[in-house]
Amino acid sequence: MGFLRFVVTRIFSYFLALIASISILYLGIFGTIEQAITDECNYKSSTANLSCLREFGLNKPVVDRFGIELYRLVSFQFGSSFFIFANGSDNVRTIILAYLPNTILLFTTATVILIILGTLIGLFAARSAGTVWDRLVSIIAVVHSSFPSWWLGFLLIAGLSYGLKILPAYGMTSIPVQTNGVLYGLDVADHMILPVLAVLTVSIGGFAYVVRSMIITTMDEDFVLTARARGLSESRIVFRHIFRTASPAIATQAILVTVSSFAGSLLTEIVFLWPGIGLLTYQAVLANDLPLIIGITFVLTLVTYVGLFIGELVYGVLDPRIRMGSD
Known about the structure:
The chain has 327 residues and is an all-alpha fold. It has 13 helices and no strands. It folds into 2 domains: 31-75, no CATH class; 92-324, MetI-like (MetI-like fold).
């Protein structure tokens, strides 16, 4: 019952946090939303206008209108975009669903590579603590984290696309689009290389340093000294004891990185013209497309909370002390 209680408690907590976040969002822009809805209804005929006003509850008290808008948001009824279309539709939910998979494809791929390489590099640095390799990881973490992603993106485009002409500079596919499934997949992968390199270069040093720090901290525990006193090999100590103990914190960090990847990188997608949520957000802000901005904000907020919830579940599975603490 301990783990079940832990899960139920976390679900309730995150649900309340999500409702609170949505309420705060709407309290800040409630007047603007109502004005946008009124303007949209006024463009319709008199009969359609009246129906529109009733649909959004504009003929009801403020509290009722707020509740109606909150319900529409929770049920993913974001309304219609003012200026942007996707798949022939101006429905905000349809537009977001058209762009979100592209962001998931690009940044989740980059994040998986980041987690694997970052964990291996961090583990190697921790095992070589105090050596040149360990110091090199620390230096790389500081230097790479200070690189602006947009600046690095321009360098990669200038060097590998326009200079060496070996990789495409922007977009997700070539024109004309490949009709063969295999060739289409290879074309997309080819276009992914530069933005993935940009994301990895900026992020991998910091993630590796975090992993290194977690493992080094675990190395000072008493059970490690006991394992060494028993004559166990260093490799067995590292992988069977140290890494296993540090895995909850590392897994949580990996999940947080993965969650942030779903929001994409606004500047990275703009620089490489990758048709994802980041580029869509930029276009919506430029066009002052309020329904689309609100829809994107809600979806990314929801993704963040779901990711944090999954992170806590993973932490609870890997570390029994967390879930037992809820009893």
